[in-house]
Amino acid sequence: MIVTVTPNPSVDRALDVDTLEVGEVNRAHTTHVHAGGKGINVARALVRHGLDAVAVVPSGGPDGARLTALMAEQGVPAVPVPVTGDTRTNITLQERDGTTTKINAPGPRLSAAEVDALLEAVDAQLAGAPRAVVAAGSLPAGAGDDFFVRLADVAGRHGVPLLLDTSGAPLGQAVRAGGLALVKPNEDELAEMVGRDLVTVGDVVAAAREVIALGTREVLVSLGAHGALLVGAGEPVWAGGPALVPLSTVGAGDSTLAGFLAADGTAADRLRTAVAWGRAAVLLPGTEVPGPDDVDVDQVRVVLDPDPHLATKEL
Ligand SMILES: Nc1ncnc2c1ncn2[C@@H]1O[C@H](COP(=O)(O)OP(=O)(O)OP(=O)(O)O)[C@@H](O)[C@H]1O
Ligand SMILES: O=P(O)(O)OC[C@@]1(O)O[C@H](CO)[C@@H](O)[C@@H]1O
């Protein structure tokens, strides 16, 4: 069982347009609606592969009800924590050439009592001794930048590994507090965390090692079209595949993390599966997550200890 926590979930609405004309009336030809938010997407991808997952989410107003209904439709077990504010809707504008424009709403402000209730709901799930807990996405106002530090305390008390995918100050605080099993920044998020540009593989590996030195076991850095790097105690590993034209990149990082959790074996095996799931996600519309038939592990190439001088854009 994997428990996921999404402090700021969303109903994801994707509108497909041929070409987006900024400042004009654009007419979409298709819309896709999915239960969204990073932790929910991880749970959805795991469930589509027949694995056990449960998603803990604050839920409020009509869109909160819609969110939990969408999860139920997809057979994703949810633990909704009632909140007074309205759950947000996030918009994706998807162009035919693969260009993705996303507008994420701020989401409702949570009261201190609602934040405590969310942490208590996670605490109750962790009492069942799941294999891991994944916390992912941005924080709503009111949660406090130390929310993931508090969550790490809860996970630590239960001895459950915590995997974190977030950004900005909440990521920085959690990394500095230590005790994380894994963080999954993309290249920009890692660069922001260490406060410098990352150009080469060596730059990314050095930044990941700084994170590890602060008390995180592994760093999975997703590099968009250029695959992903896994840095842990051993030698770094890169995985990626042939170029493809994305249908929607939304949630690709979440499917990557789900694939990583689903896989067994060496670091290379787990990274290969993670990248295969991420690649499969970008070939699906909106925030659709891949199932077993979508994933092609054989297309993914793995390189142990990649050349540190290579620019990540050349991978
Ligand atoms: N354009 C692309 N072509 C091929 N693979 C891609 C592309 N974009 C993403 N991927 C795959 O998906 C993985 C995750 O992508 P990315 O690094 O963009 O994650 P992210 O920024 O966390 O995304 P999100 O926040 O939308 O989930 C990559 O490691 C890669 O395997
Ligand atoms: O605003 P956040 O929490 O950073 O990101 C939310 C979000 O963009 O992330 C998911 C894709 O990873 C989407 O389902 C969702 O709309």
TrEMBL record:
InterPro entries listed in its UniProt record: 1-PFruKinase, Carboh/pur_kinase_PfkB_CS, PfkB_dom, Ribokinase-like, Tagatose/fructose_Pkinase
Molecular function as annotated in GO: 1-phosphofructokinase activity; ATP binding
Transmembrane region(s): none
Keywords attached to this entry: ATP-binding, Kinase, Nucleotide-binding, Transferase
GO biological process, one term: small molecule metabolic process
Residues of the Carbohydrate kinase PfkB domain: 8-288
Catalytic activity: beta-D-fructose 1-phosphate + ATP = beta-D-fructose 1,6-bisphosphate + ADP + H(+)
Enzyme superclass (EC): transferase
NCBIfam families assigned: 1-PFK, pfkB
Function, as annotated: Catalyzes the ATP-dependent phosphorylation of fructose-l-phosphate to fructose-l,6-bisphosphate.
Name of the molecule in the record: 1-phosphofructokinase
Organism of this sequence: Cellulomonas oligotrophica
Organism lineage: Bacteria, Bacillati, Actinomycetota, Actinomycetes, Micrococcales
